[in-house]
Amino acid sequence: MLNYDIVVIGGGPAGMAAALKAKECGVDSILILERAESLGGILEQCIHTGFGLQYFGEELSGPEYADRFIKQVLDEKIEYKLDTMALEITQDNVVYAVNKTDGLLEIQAKAVILAMGCRERPRGALNIAGTRASGVMSAGTAQKYVNIDGYMPGKKVVILGSGDIGLIMARRMTLEGAKVECVCELMPYSSGLTRNIVQCLDDFGIPLYLSHTVVDIHGKDRVTGVTIAAVDENRKPIPGSEQYIECDTLMLSVGLIPENELTRNVGISIDRVTSGAIVDEYRETDHKGVFACGNVLHVHDLVDFVTKESQIAGEGAARYVLGKKSDPEYITTKGVDAVRYIVPQKVNIKNEGDVQLFFRVGSTFKNATVKVRYNGEEIISRKRPRLAPGEMENVVLKNDMLKSFAKDGVIEITVEV
């Protein structure tokens, strides 16, 4: 059996940032397990720019952003194993993993950091009529074909879903010479960043059809076209609104699912909205010594926020290993009405510093007010010119404020117009 103070599962931006922070906090015995053949995660295929504006103050491509952390991992001599799949975490924080070099690995960890990222929702989850013709793929798969493998997925494209990957691939396919007929979005608002709607659709004249979906896929061997339709307030297709669009490719950008099979199997509580673990301000789950961060915890809009959150988890894991964690007294957080979820879901009022609460809204607002209440009493009020589901928001609970709270209190965040 191998022994490490901290085992990090996932070598993408979240896993690397967490490992580096734990090292900075004084833990030397760290192992990163990555199932791909290189560190960096999904950033390796994201060759567009827009990364690093928040964290580095400059615009980087995905590989450039990842490379900065890979170099730090190498410089700090943090151990890692590539092409290694984590299979199980036991109640005693033993991690079982496998690769073709070592075979089955049994690793005893004092703390485990979950940083497995997320995957795309597949066609099977959508119940779209039609055959299993080639040419239907997720936007991320198409991105890998174009940016890594050098293959062109198609020439006439329809994209279902306005997530950021779908928006970026609309631009990418256009630049490669394809005709993107339209982007359809089931909801009455886009789920992507505003800047991506402008830079990827508006700048190229690609139409975005809100409150529309694909109801049929045509073609036997290869997609020949799709039928789209408008939907009502219950997201049901409106009879008579159908429209046929000729295409040879349908790309799906219909949401991301945190990779939480390991999390569930060890018995960690899952938030029904985020589909990630329920955590405290140091991103510790309800399983002692197991922490979660990045897109496996909740889907982020910017990798810069993934990095900052993962550093919190890395510090939390280091504190746990070094015996610096005191007995907590928790208050819980709760999103009200338009606020879909808040992370962390609980906060230790004995925490030594300020605590940042991240949240997302369920619809678009203009000139709204974000209000934070503790046990029904308003404690923070902030004006926001615009709130959108595709963009993460946050508020900060100051440490002196936390110290005035009592155990088992409730923090609520709501949006008022």
Molecular structure report:
The chain is built from 8 helices and 28 strands. Helices cover 20% and strands 35% of the residues. It is of the alpha/beta class. Strands 1, 2, 5, 6, 7, 8 and 20 form a 7-stranded mixed sheet that branches. The chain has a 5-stranded parallel sheet with strand order 11-18-12-13-14. The radius of gyration is 22 Å and the shape is globular. The chain has helices at residues 13-24, 62-75, 139-149, 164-175, 194-201, 261-265, 303-321, 399-402, and strands spanning 2-9, 30-33, 49-51, 60-61, 79-81, 85-89, 94-99, 103-114, 118-120, 129-130, 136-138, 156-160, 179-185, 208-210, 212-218, 225-230, 243-246, 249-252, 256-258, 290-292, 330-335, 339-343, 346-348, 355-361, 365-374, 377-387, 393-397, 410-416. Helix 4 (164-175) runs parallel beside helix 5. Strand 12, helix 4 (164-175) and strand 13 form a beta-alpha-beta unit. The mean pLDDT is 94.
